[in-house]
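To: structure subgroup
Subject: Chain for Friday's discussion

All,

I'm putting the inputs and outputs inline so they're searchable in the archive.
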Amino acid sequence: MSLAMVTWAIAWTNAKIVNSYIPFYDLVFLRFVLGFLSLIPFIVFKKISIPKLSDFKLLILPSILFLIYNISFFKGTYYGLAGKGAVLVTTLNPLCTVILMSIINKKIEKREVVSVLIGIFGGMIIMNVFNSGFSIIFNQSNIYFVICALSWGIMTVAINYAQKIINPYMFICLCYLLTAILTFPFTNVNEINLSTLDFKFYINFFLVSIGAMSFGTSIYMYFTPILGPSKASIFIFSVPFIAMAFANYFLGEPFTANIIIGGLLSLYAIVVINKR
């Protein structure tokens, strides 16, 4: 899970870079096609059977949420700052997850609540809301990140229940395929001129697809039902600090004292949730 979070952190910078090459929907479609194809050999090797036709309905909601998240992800990194977007998404997402699980189960552990509050407080310090005001979170350049957080929080809960019925690896693979199918009507991939795409695009697209999605997201989705959605979502708190560091190095985004302090608080949230 920790390695998966590193690939997610790098992905925010990768997305910012590839956004300047091809349209958003084309990026999403190609990302999921590549993710689906990369998992096929593993599915075949493990001889995992296809689920019953009646179970396919469990793929619909996660796949729609995948589409919403990824469109917002690419648009958000295009219009806003990649590093701060990572902070906003990764601090709002666990809050959404914990609230949903609390409503469903009517029970939540005290340390989960404490860890979420610590992570959110750390995120607010990174966003510098205490100086700039809370409105900075919801301005036009950040609204896509808010959508990312909400859609991912709901999806975390949805996959927790779906993977109890469908094999996690098969579930992930089919979700990637269905999301690609849902995206295709909005694409113009046949108009992409591959000769205009340089090595910089390919390496960053490889990392945002194979690295962050095929590896990172697959690991996250696999371990969510094992750890429970609330605890799994807390691991995302390790993303902000790493994401800001990469955004600073590759994109020149600011990396100040409030980012360091807030990042450390967010990392501490992971310690709290895993403390026995």
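Points worth raising on Friday:
The chain is about 75% helix and 0% strand.
The mean pLDDT is 85.

D.
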